[in-house]
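Example complex used in Figure S2.
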Amino acid sequence: MSLFKLIGAFLVIFSTGMAGMNIASYYSLRPRQLRALQDALQMLDTEIMYGATPLPAALRKIGQAGDTAVSRIFSGAAALLESSWGYTAGEAWSRALDEEIGRTALNGDDYAVLRAFGEGLGASDRQEQHKKIALTSLNLRKEEEKAQRERERNERLWRYGGFLLGISIVLLLL
Amino acid sequence: MHGLMEGGICQILPLVAPALKAIFERLPSFIVEGLEEIRLRRERPLAVRYHQEECFLNIKGEPVHALSEAYLVSAEDIWKTLQLISQGSLYAYEEELRQGFITLPGGHRVGLAGRAVLDGGALKTMRDISSLNIRIARAVPGAARHLLPFVLNFQERRPYHTLLVSPPRAGKTTILRDLVRSLSYGLPALNFPGLSVGVVDERSELAACFQGVPQHDLGPRVDVLDCCPKAVGMVMLLRSMAPQVIATDEIGRSEDVAALWEMVNTGVSILATAHASCWEELEQRPYLRELIEQRVFQRYVFLSRRRGPGTLEGVWDENKRLLRGVNVSV
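Predicted assembly (504 residues):
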């Protein structure tokens, strides 16, 4: 009987611990993805300012550069733009964003920033595009700082908190 | 010919706003066959030109002549079309916006008008585009065939310095393009060898390059300097590519003429075009008059639209002696 208890206790601690780790990884993933987004925008800025590369090619290149969930937004938008369905750059971007956002660790605030980025994307001269990218990067950096603070507060808590919760449940039930 | 023009509208359909696309898909075939031009003006009726006729279109793609029945082009139609034409990347077309037109795959051209943005007196870019004019390109192989005996110097195995003269839309560029193509392929029937031709295509019209690739077949011996100012381009091509013939479109500014002076005595033959409908008009152009007086050009070919684009009015030599006139059947 005590063997069953032991196994049960182990299972409880293991599962709450894993759940905690999972939540903790969300807290560490979000700032990383926000960082990756800024890097991607930096690349886009270079492509636009120095190469005057058309968006489909530029977005595809950025999409291929990383394999995080974030870069899938870029390759998704490139694919839609290259399709013959008549999407404008802004429409292609927001569709790709809506499709991929669920697979990222980004939250509603990040979504709002990225959504705003899509409006007027590609539809003005290089200087305007540069300003737009700079503004979006700035907003993403603010979000990243917030995410970083949340991470510091919550990551360790959840990483160990899950196990501690499991242990306390076991102790209560024993 | 039929297939070519259908190709034209097919290449354009994916590039217009969905609302317009639906209209063009329903166009009757007699318009599709002769389609020359599509005009989009904000809050104005949708207009097309076909077989030299102009008409408005209603929402079903039928030709109408009453203003009230025509489909009004919305600001969004223009905006979306512009986005699709530029692949959602208007910033990549800054030079084209400055020049006022964009070249599409297939060599079709879109003219633009809107609000100009100036920077120190020079046109920086264009905003609030309100009019688009889509001109369907058509290559007419053999358009210059009947000219060839007059512009080729068989003894020296090169073409004469030739100026093609016509009012706008009378087929100058089409004929020059075919001349270039004929020279570049060579003319085995006339025992004339193929020559290296350098094309300075300032307005991307002659070769109609799309991302560096000529959209018109210009034959195997052509080097195209795309979007380059003519005066700079001619000198550059002469040095870099050693062409036997240099072709360029629409000369008339002082720097073009100065560059031509540099060209004439280097052994390269020059093919060029100019806007004018008759000798008097041509000689009133200040810089061109100088060239005529100095007998730089050895052949003058006048064209008109009298019997459709590309009607040959006559060929004159450097002494303004008529070699072939309209009374001679073409």
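Residues 2-173 of chain A form one domain. Chain A is about 85% helix and 0% strand.
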